[in-house]
Amino acid sequence: MRRVNDQVVLIIYGLALACTIKIDASLVIALLLATSYSAFMTLTESNQLWRLLCFTGLFFAFSVFYPLCLLFSPLVVYHMISRQNKLVLGVSLVLVLALAYHSEVIPLFPIGTFLVIGLIFAAYADNKTQQINTLATSLQKTRDDSTELTLLLQEKNRSLRDKQDYEIYAATLKERNRIAREIHDNVGHLLSRAILITGAMKMTTQNSSLREPFENLDTSLGEAMDSIRKSVHDLHDDAVDLKKALEELVADFSFCPIDFSYHLSHTMPREVKYNVIAIVKEALNNVIKHSNATLVRLTISESQALYQLIIEDNGTTITPDTPTRSLNIETRGIGLINMTERVKKLHGTITFYSQNGFIIYIKIPKQ
């Protein structure tokens, strides 16, 4: 936009000089030629030298017949400087000065002097525009770098928050496990001993009036023991970290490398969690028993409505426990049937593929 402004200023400057000489049809033709030249040069790429020479040559050719065109020569020089073609610039300056010197229409003073001033102004305007464009480019680059850095910092902060949340979650699970273990080892053992003592006293007492209190005591202690056992199991079940459990399975699997991808942002329900662990164990056992795979990919992810589990390997061995493309029950082994039953219990779907390896694709709806 600034270069357009520079060109408009130079055209107005040339028009002002021309008006001091004479106003007739030749001035209108010179103005049209200057405007057309400026438009063509603006649309011409800097590396299209032949167009540059063609348009500039035509302008100077018309200047021979319409000398007033020379008053717009600062515009030509401006375009030559902007394209940094020193040879064409030098030739253009020589032609301008030569044509102006031999022109009978343009007096050397004062119009010739003002023409030289116009040429100097054209060089100055191009230099300032280049400086401003360079500064604008530098500013835009700085803004882009700043935006990129801001995005990187936001991503880093998000990662740190996620890591902090996971550490808090892991610490919570660890504490739950500790509490469950303490209850089981201490309170559970004390209750067990109390139940045994109560049972022994109930069997050995000869006083019939004490039998009913012992029965009630034995029942209460049994209910307390069941409640403690349920609480311990609930604490332990909630404390299972699915990602850590799967990572341990991957670490213990030495048959071939496993590419493990985990993309869950929320905690999976306990029942789903345990079935997923069992399915992955069964699938990895099948790889060891029935496949010659050299790579296993384990991917668990979620969408808005369901969980997805994909277990695939690049093995080529087909055995009775690996189905072909057909999903008939006869083509499945016991391990795959067990997987199917587990997924069915969770109201999900399981699909087996044996093309280009073996793939287990499971979808489980969120409750």
Name the features.
single chain; 367 residues; alpha+beta; Heat Shock Protein 90; 5-stranded mixed beta sheet; 68% helix; rod-shaped; kinase; transferase; His_kinase_dom; membrane
Write the layout of secondary structure elements.
Elements: H1 2-19, H2 25-43, H3 49-65, H4 73-82, H5 86-102, H6 108-204, H7 211-238, H8 242-252, E1 258-263, H9 270-290, E2 296-302, E3 306-313, H10 334-345, E4 349-353, E5 358-365
Parallel strand pairs: 1-2
Antiparallel strand pairs: 2-3, 3-5, 4-5
Helix pairs in contact: 1-2, 1-4, 1-6, 2-3, 2-4, 3-5, 4-5, 4-6, 6-7, 8-9, 9-10
EC number: 2.7.13.3
Domain Histidine kinase: 178-367
GO molecular function, one term: ATP binding
Offer a quick outline of the entry:
This protein is of the alpha+beta class and 367 residues long.
Number of separate structural domains: 3
Shape: rod-shaped
CATH homologous superfamily of the largest domain? Histidine kinase-like ATPase, C-terminal domain
- Classify the fold: give the CATH topology of the largest domain: Heat Shock Protein 90
Quickly count the helices.
10
Question: If classified by CATH, what would the architecture of the largest domain be?
Answer: 2-Layer Sandwich
What fraction of the residues are assigned to beta strands by DSSP? 5-15%
Pfam families: HATPase_c (PF02518), HisKA_3 (PF07730)
Keywords: ATP-binding, Kinase, Membrane, Nucleotide-binding, Phosphoprotein, Transferase, Transmembrane, Transmembrane helix, Two-component regulatory system
Protein name: histidine kinase
GO molecular function: ATP binding; phosphorelay sensor kinase activity; protein dimerization activity
